[in-house]
Amino acid sequence: MSNYFTNQLRGYPVVLAALQAYSKDICRNCIGQEGSQTKVKKGLKKLSIDLKGSSMPEEEKGALLAHIDSLSSEAEAIELSEDCECQKTAGNCKIGTGCFPLGALNILKLITEPGAP
Amino acid sequence: MNKECCKTNAAELLNIKGSCCLETAGIRQHLKDLMSGNTLKIVFDPPLRQDMENLVAEENCEILRIDDEGESLTATIWKKQSTTELLKVSPVVDYPTEEGCFLRGNHYSPVAVVVMLNAPYGTMPPEVKSIPPEIDKLVRLAVETGAALSGTLQTENIGIEKIVCNIVGNPNIRHIVLCGIDVEGHHSGDAIRALIENGVNEWRTIIGSTAVTPYLFNIPKESIERFRKQLTLINLLGEMNPEVITKAVWSCYQEKPTPFLNYTLSDPGAYPEQPMSCRLSWRVKQPESIEEWELKDLVKGIEEEEKAVAVPQQKEVAVKVSEPKVAAIASCLSRIAEELSQIAKILVEEKPIVPVKEAPVVEEAKPVCVVKEETPAAVAPAVVELTEKELYFHNQLRAYPGILAGLSACDKDMCHNGCSLPAAVTSITKKLAKLKKDIEGASISKKKREEFLARIDGFLEAAEGLPTEPGQPCQKTLGNCTIGKGCLATGAADLLKQITEPASLMQ
Q1: Over B139-200, what HEC string results?
Q2: Which pLDDT score, from 0 to 100, does residue A52 have?
Q3: Do residue B188 and residue B63 come from a single domain?
Q4: Number of Cβ pairs closer than 8 Å across A and B?
Q5: Which residues of B touch A17 (CB under 8 A)?
Q6: How far is residue B131's CA from residue B137's CA, in Å, rounded to a whole number?
């Protein structure tokens, strides 16, 4: 069970680092970045709820929860404009159909094992 | 109701000359059988005139005219619509309660038209001009044909909530015509169909909808139920033919049942309950970001909040206040008013009071477009000036900050001792070197070249701090990395694959 949480938490620093980097770009004004930030925050919240409800030893649980808290603070600190809009629609982002923040978020999907408890 | 029009449509003629009594001549039954809005001509003897007038009034009919032909009279009689059928009421004072991209027509009309806005997200509002012309045409046509409201719908949650609010505020609206191509990704048209057919479940999710987030968190459940009861759905999803839409709208306000495709339509009059003034609570501003696992807690919270709001109202009704208490309360309120007045004076002296902007008055007779107030656009560097080649380099360089940040994060993990991270770093470094070479040889402006090269140097410098030593063992093989087949470092490097434009230079 602990392996599940540990593995999930290995993905978040990578995603957060990429999102922080893209917040220096026009992605800062983008709903893609805003949505990815929300997804990360919620993913961490869900992980925290699941962890609290798990039968893991308290000490181990505490360490993982602290890690989640730290990652949540990082997610919260990602800089965003007050009014975000799709930068493709606004004509500023011309990379094609892809999206850097959503691509970064998809790194989490690379973690496939073990399955959720 | 245009009585003159009905008069010309009169067909039946009844001659009861010589009859001594209207009852025995079967006139009462004839008047009973006369369909609402239809007319009947009766030729009768002059002494029966008063009886005829009385009987006509009793049977909810009206004499439009009486032609005196000397020996006989000919009455043209019109059967009135029953009061419930013709009932039209005023909408709520603040109708339409929610803003949106729609046009207003006659609010006594029984039909609203919703055209699916299958266009890229974010094109409206506020950039109403960017509505595709064929959609705009349908919206205008519907209101010109006689719809009470006609507008576009894009989202399967907030968009539908706004429609619900505006329709329950006007009980005269009894039909909703859905038309246009359903919105890709949102399936809002299907969501509104499912809402009318099935309603919502305990988690405020539309039952049987194919939409991804068909959640209605911001409006009361009562308004959803009322919306479903008030309306008949005319489902023309996929239809873009203006003639069909026009016929649908026209059929809805006919007084007689009118066949239209598989429907039989007419105006049944206003819904026999008070209009509901309903606005979005905005408790959930981004329903599309709600995960399924959050629904339970979220809905529980909303319902508790609704209960908390409802309880004081019940108490207010239950409390009986005696006269001396009323006097005491009045005295207290008077003191409070005085205090507030003094505070206001102090504030006025410090700073001039900004007058409150009145809500814009919307004309009722003419269709008007009600749109959201325009918000300032987010600041973003313009890329319109770049040539295709410059855009290629610009796009490529945009990916690297995220890639390098991701690889740096991997470096702090067990990936530091693995084989994939150095491989990813080497690959990225090579790509940067190739890009640098391409920029140096490209025919682009000197300023842009220098700018791009400086950025590449910065990226290469950052990459130097990352491991590139080959030959380290795979952390999966060692049993340390157990995330599955995926690889975080490779995933970070693959962010470059998000770029697909300009397509001509992507080879």
Answers
A1: HHHHHHHCCCEEEEECCCCHHHHHHHHHHHCCCCCCEEEEEECCCCCCCHHHHHHHHHHHCE
A2: 92
A3: no
A4: 147
A5: 402, 405-406, 408-409
A6: 10
Q: Can you give the residue ranges of every domain in chain A?
A: 2-78+85-109
Residues B66 and B126 in one domain: no
In this prediction, residue B507 carries a pLDDT of 66
Q: What is the pLDDT of residue A101?
A: 95
Q: Do B486 and A111 lie within an 8 Å CB cutoff?
A: yes
Identify from B475, B483, B485, B487 which residue to disrupt to test chain A contact, counting A C-beta atoms within 10 A and taking the largest count: B483
- Tracing tokens 């009322």 back to the chain, one arrives at B226
- Considering the domain architecture, whether residues B146 and B286 belong to the same structural domain is answered as yes
Nearest chain A residue to B407, by CA: A14
CB within 8 Å: A100 and B122: no
Q: Are B145 and B72 members of one domain?
A: no
Whether residue B365 is contained in a domain is answered as no
Task: Give average pLDDT by consecutive 10-residue segment, chain B, 507 residues.
Answer: 35 83 89 79 91 90 86 86 69 92 93 89 50 90 95 93 96 96 89 96 93 91 95 95 96 88 89 92 82 81 78 50 70 79 67 37 35 36 73 94 96 92 93 92 91 94 90 86 92 94 82
Query: Same domain, yes or no, for B262 and B131?
Result: yes
Residue B201 shares a structural domain with residue B127: yes
State which H helix or E strand residue B104 sits in: strand B102-104
Q: Write out pLDDT tens, residues A41-53.
A: 999 999 999 999 9
How many helices (H) and strands (E) are present in chain B, helices listed first? 15, 12
Angle at Cα B292 formed by Cα A102 and Cα B288, nearest 5°? 50
Residue B76 falls within a domain, yes or no? yes
In a domain, residue B150? The reply is yes
State the nearest Cα–Cα gap between A58 and chain B, in angstroms: 23
Q: What are phi and psi of B271, to 5 degrees?
A: -65, 130
Nearest to A90 among B380, B398, B500 (CB): B380
- Which B-chain residues 101-120 have CB contacts (< 8 A) with chain A? 120
- This complex has an ipTM of 0.95
CATH code of the domain covering residue B51: 3.30.110.40
- From A25's Cα to the closest Cα of chain B, the distance in A is 8
Residue type, B327: A
**Are B459 and B393 within one domain?**
yes
For B379, how many CA atoms within 13 A lie in the half-sphere containing its CB?
Answer: 4
A-chain residues within 8 Å CB-CB of B487?
110
Containing domain of residue B54, as a range? 3-80
Do the bridges between strand B149-153 and strand B102-104 make them parallel or antiparallel, or are there none, so unpaired?
Answer: antiparallel
B311 inside domain: no
Q: Which of residues 290-319 of B touch A (CB under 8 A)?
A: 291, 293-294
Examine the domain organization and report whether B397 and B287 are in the same domain: no
| pLDDT at residue B209, rounded to an integer | 93
The CA distance from B219 to B212, in Å, is 19
The number of folded domains in chain B is: 3
> Which pLDDT does position B158 carry in this prediction?
94
Alpha helices in B199-241 (DSSP H): 221-230
Kindly give the residue spans of alpha helices, DSSP state H, lying in A23-110.
Answer: 31-52, 58-76, 100-105
